[in-house]
Amino acid sequence: NDDVLTKTFSKYPSFNMAKVIRDKSTGKTKGYGFVSFANASDLAAALKEMNGKYVGNRPIKLRKSTWKNRIDYEALLKPKTRPQKKLKVQPRSVLHK
Predict the structure, then answer these.
(1) Which residues of 55-65 are buried (b: 16+ CB within 10 A; e: fewer)?
(2) What is the reported pTM?
(3) pLDDT under 50 in the chain at which residues?
(4) Candidates 3.30.70.330, 1.10.10.10, 3.40.50.2000, 1.10.287.1080; correct CATH number of 2-74?
């Protein structure tokens, strides 16, 4: 869980956070997580020292994330169009003839 990862990597001075990824519907872990560092030298040290070590009952495999800026600026500029809902016309009751 997040706490175990945090305790494991908090020995590095520039450690920021640790996050275990979970399935939204079941809440079970997906078997991977992310750890972030502010300093690249701590990242390199963690990759060298911690790769293959056991965290809990699992050996961990470390690699640098290939995360890129995920903001889609073109999608943000497009006007949002939603399909228009058809209004249901309720029949009028006849009180007088």
Answers:
(1) eeeeebeeeee
(2) 0.58
(3) none
(4) 3.30.70.330
